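Closing statement on the calcium ion sub-project.
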Amino acid sequence: MGIPHFPPRSNPVLGGEAVANRAEIGPAEKMADGHLVRGRETEADGKQRNGSRRQVRARQPLALGIRSRMKLTSWFHRRSFFPFASRLRAWMMLGGTTTLFILTANGVDAKDWQLVWADEFNYQGQPDPAKWSYEEGFVRNHESQYYTRSRLENARVENGNLVIECRKEPFTPPNHAPVAYTAASLTTQNQANWQYGRIEVRAQLPQGQGVWPAIWMLGTNITKVGWPACGEIDIMEFVGKEPRGIHGTLHYAVAGKHDSDGGALQTNQPFAAFHTYALEWTPERIDFFFDALKYHSVALAKADQGAGNPFRAPHYLILNFALGGAWGGPIDDAVLPQKFLIDYVRVYRAADLK
Ligand SMILES: [Ca+2]
């Protein structure tokens, strides 16, 4: 959610910094085409850690993505005589087969994961108040939606899914002027947080110009140290104006200034079906997954801040459906309402990580 991560509207200074960050990300997106993954792997090049991210990207385009892809397509190499590109295309189209690779693609064997928290959304009505609370109002990024609290039109559980619905409608919140767009943002803040493990969310994304759903985390110490020092883990971000891109990113502070390390996967119509968005978080690194495919990885050491590191501390989870704003861009009213469906959230701890 944090590229750019504007603080509330009242802080124009930090907002300006975020705009510059987004502008820098732009050219890299044009480098990727087809089903290629792109990402930055600065930890493999220590000399460039303190250089500009633009330099890093120019020297190492696609390096991480291609390696990850090669690993995952080895099955096709052994069993098929089709050219590599055809195998790749076929593999991406066979979304249902990706589960075959989970055991080998994950950093830790599946048998070593212990489920420690979950919401399967196998009930009806309000999201479980023992697990979820709400962000309310206009919260960040100059987005157009007003987040409502405990309003079934915007957040409800039905048919086995959490439904977060973004609507264009005249609505007058309590103690607020009328608004034009409503949606919801659910958070486990003050109720559940985790440090290390595998966080897995099966979801179907909304689509259309302006939509910006996200699955992400913030450090629980945000109320003390602020953003970005608290750290931010974006497990999944998607913007409807780039309908092929899935983004995973870390935000943090280096010497008091915002920095980030993000990767993106280019795939076909990710909103057309449910997919699994996950991260695996160890004391050494965070890996980002789309189904079984690991498309980005960041060494935690990048975010060392003296003796501390925001990613060696607990974070809470946020599921939200934003509209417009700094990254969502212009809104196509005709696509609304749109639904962000979440089948489940599962949090695992690795058996060897206490
Ligand atoms: Ca479910």
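The chain is about 20% helix and 35% strand. With this model delivered, the sub-project is considered complete and its resources will be redirected to Aim 3.
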